[in-house]
Design brief:
Helix 1 (4-38) runs antiparallel to helix 2. The strands form 4 sheets. Strands 8-5-11-1-15 form a 5-stranded antiparallel beta sheet, with no helix packed on it. Strands 2, 6, 7, 9 and 10 form a 5-stranded antiparallel beta sheet that branches. A 3-stranded antiparallel beta sheet has the order 12-13-14, covered by helices on one side. Helix content is 34%, strand content 36%. It has helices at residues 4-38, 48-87, and strands at 93-97, 100-103, 105-106, 109-110, 113-119, 123-131, 137-146, 149-155, 168-177, 183-184, 186-193, 196-200, 203-207, 213-215, 221-222. It has 2 helices and 15 strands. The two termini are 21 Å apart. By secondary structure, it is an alpha+beta fold. The longest helix has 40 residues, at 48-87. It folds into 2 domains: 4-87; 93-222, Sandwich (Immunoglobulin-like). The chain is elongated.
């Protein structure tokens, strides 16, 4: 489950702490300035320029603290916004960086396994190979004239001979080349259904169950 309230509370505490520090700094400065004025030598009073300089220093500190306060407020709002955005993903299937995929069957009907790829530039050809835990290729898919971007792919859980593969964990290997047969950058993507959302020091994290935990920034596609 999400922890939006904890994010809001933390932001509020940071802002309150900064405001209290600013007020304390101003009070200490005014106390120090009044003490200086009371104890100054009547024959050699403080120069107006000196007083002005000290007031200017306080204004600078105040301005910096107010800027920090504003940035903290914006950061808190951003955290809340990201948490709310992530909460809307619960129950949805997403694509994130990764090569692991899983196959599960129900009777004679194999469940379709979703995965994907992130292609950097246009490719004349793309080869997708699915391997078992021993590294043996069980299925090969060839695609032609693929445009750059994130692409969703499906596997029916069958090998190249049409037989259903055993349940378990498999991996995806993807390679691509352009019209001159030069390699094109491409990365595999794994899929998972978001079961819960939590905030951490590193940011908002999505729990995908067996697929693992990923940052919100890792999401490449919502399906």
């Amino acid at each position: 489950m999400t922890t939006v309230s904890s994010v809001t509370s933390a932001a509020a505490q940071n802002i309150a702490g900064t405001t209290e520090l600013l007020a304390d700094t101003q009070e200490r400065f005014m106390t120090m300035l009044i003490t200086q004025l009371k104890n100054q030598d009547p024959m050699n009073p403080m120069d107006n320029a000196q007083i002005t300089s000290q007031v200017a220093q306080l204004s600078t500190v105040t301005g910096i603290n107010q800027l920090n306060q504003t940035l903290l407020a914006l950061a808190g709002q951003l955290d809340v916004s990201q948490s709310m955005q992530a909460a809307s993903l619960i129950g949805k299937e997403i694509l994130v960086p990764g090569a692991d995929i899983r196959v599960g069957t129900s009777g004679d009907n194999t469940q379709v396994t979703h995965f994907g790829m992130d292609l950097l530039s246009p490719a004349a050809g793309v080869r997708v190979m699915i391997t078992d835990v021993a590294g043996k290729v069980v299925r090969t898919m060839d695609l032609e004239n693929v445009q750059p971007g994130v692409h969703s792919l499906e596997w029916d859980g069958k090998d190249d001979t049409g037989n259903i593969v055993p349940d378990g964990r498999y991996q995806v290997r993807v390679s691509a080349f352009d019209a001159q047969e030069a390699p094109v950058s491409v990365a595999p993507l794994t899929s998972g259904k978001v079961s819960s959302v939590a905030t951490s020091n590193g940011g908002v994290r999505l729990d995908l169950g067996l697929a693992g935990s990923y940052l919100l920034s890792d999401v490449r596609k919502i399906m």
